[in-house]
Amino acid sequence: MVHRPQDTEGAEDPGDALGPLGPVGLGGRTALVTGAAGGIGRAVCAALARAGARVVAADLDAAAARAAVAALPGASAIGVDLADPDEAAAAAGRACEAAGGGVDVLVHNAGVSTVGPFARGDPADWDLMWRVNARAPMLLTRDLLPGMAERGFGRVVFVSSDSARAGAGGEAAYSATKAALLGLAKSLAREYARKGVTCNAVCPGPTDTPMLRRVSEEHPGMVEALVRRIPAGRLGEASDVAAAVAFLADPSASYITGQTLSVSGGITMH
Fold first, then answer.
1. 253 pLDDT exceeds 90?
2. Is 174 considered catalytic here?
3. Tell me, what DSSP letter sits at residue 78?
């Protein structure tokens, strides 16, 4: 092995060469978060606000959305039924109006789910999941991407699910609609990579949220069985998912696009 001597005379400090390390921050940026009144949604709003973003919280329950961001400086809230295509399409304009400018960070967190054998599934439930979980994100993103590209900065984060990557018994339709987001994120990442816009997906594993608690009440023992399979030995917390979203939204993550990040305590590994 040949060791080459290093010439350190006049060398720049490594920190100078690399530039500032760690999160740059979202000061002056506006973030729209859907499903903001839920457990993960609230945590995402708080994490983005801590990073300096002006948060617009969107939820079917407008009062709950307002409560979710009441303590966040400069935050606002709008009520929107994402199952209604007209409301979903209008949400982009309403968010920009509420923020007093364009949306720089778009977090698609809203989602609905039903659990049960696929062969006994109700197509009406499938349609609701398709409208909320997949079509609404497509409509919102379509309307907000041009502004991001024009300003030369944008972050789109789709909150999908680990069931979209690995499958989940009893959640075939839900998994299918959430899997649609993975293809959407990758395709948009290719289209907008040179315009300063990144598109990524975060896939939570079993996470302690009101939605999971409701499902567990209908299926006793389900949570305990899940925890036994998780290498980390616990359910995820909403803050675990929010930290991943905030990381991908940060300006310092500009070289990360088209990626899918599992936040699952190791229950799935890819």
1. yes
2. yes
3. E
